[in-house]
Structures are given as structure tokens and as C-alpha cells.
Amino acid sequence: MLTHINEQGQANMVDVTDKRVSIREAVAQGCITMLPDTLSAVINNQHKKGDVIATARIAGIQGAKKCADLIPLCHPLALTKVDLSFDIDEPNNQIIVSSLCKLSGQTGVEMEALTAVSIALLTLFDMCKAMDPMMEISAVKVLHKIGGESGFWTRDVRG
């Protein structure tokens, strides 16, 4: 049975009214690859546009909060925690962005975690594109989720 289609075949927001409230959490991750000089400017906070990572962090948090405005049929959620981390992988000229979204509610937060990562990565791209228009965003994925009927789920190490 398709959950986002009603009996008439029309798009439909899933009714979560009767679902039990539980603590729900999701962690997502993605990366952006750039030239070594661009990465160095970001790491050393020497970019002309200022603190690129701080700006991307705020953008990611705002993105998670706006997820329901961006994804059709996505429930607006009262997030209680959004956290982003930025890990520098100098040998591969990458910044790995991870997000944690959390709440106590009736539906999961995977889309919010993915949106937070995506918006943070897009912000990094936007702020650095003049230095490096060939940057590449990749590997955006959910790493794990907690809560709801399925409980705990984690990405298989194979991929």
C-alpha cells in the first residue's frame, strides 16, 4: 500500500495522529571536495567571505527547520536539537558535513538531517565557488536513525 497516495490516487500527507510519540533521531552525512588552496582558505579562516564553516552551520540548521517547506508532504516538525559538524579530510581535499536532528514526536527526522547536510554543503559551495567552481558535492546519506516502529537502523558497512 502506498502511504502518500489516497484511495483516489491523489497525493496525501500521511496521518501520524495515532502513532505513539517517541524520541526520534537521525544522523546524515555528505562531503564536498575542493582544491587544496580553497580548503586551506576555509580551514585557516582566510576566505574573503569570512567564516565559511560558521555560515554553513547556520544555513544547515535553518535548512533542517524549513524541511517541510521544501519537501512536499513532509510533516512540519518541532525539532528539539539540530547539530552540524564539519570534519576536514586534508589528504582528500574534503570537508565532511554531518548532521544530527532530534525530537520527541510521531514521525522521523531523516529528511531534516539530510536537508541540514545538503543546505550546509550548498552553502559551502556558494561561498567558495569563485575560488573553485569545480567543487563536487557527494555521498549524501543517512547514517542511522533511532525511534518509531522500526527502532534503531544503521547503514550497513558495505555502503
TrEMBL record:
One of its GO terms (molecular function) is cyclic pyranopterin monophosphate synthase activity. Substrate binds at L73, C74, H75, M111, E112. Its EC number is 4.6.1.17. InterPro entries: MoaC, MoaC_bact/euk, MoaC_sf, MoCo_biosynth_MoaA/MoaC, Mopterin_CF_biosynth-C_dom. Pfam families: MoaC. Residues 13-148 form the Molybdopterin cofactor biosynthesis C (MoaC) domain. CDD domains: MoaC_PE. Pathway: Cofactor biosynthesis; molybdopterin biosynthesis. SUPFAM superfamilies: Molybdenum cofactor biosynthesis protein C, MoaC. The active site is at D126. The keyword Iron does not apply. Keywords: Lyase, Molybdenum cofactor biosynthesis. It catalyses: (8S)-3',8-cyclo-7,8-dihydroguanosine 5'-triphosphate = cyclic pyranopterin phosphate + diphosphate. GO terms for biological process: Mo-molybdopterin cofactor biosynthetic process. Catalyzes the conversion of (8S)-3',8-cyclo-7,8-dihydroguanosine 5'-triphosphate to cyclic pyranopterin monophosphate (cPMP). Belongs to the MoaC family. Homohexamer; trimer of dimers. This is Cyclic pyranopterin monophosphate synthase.
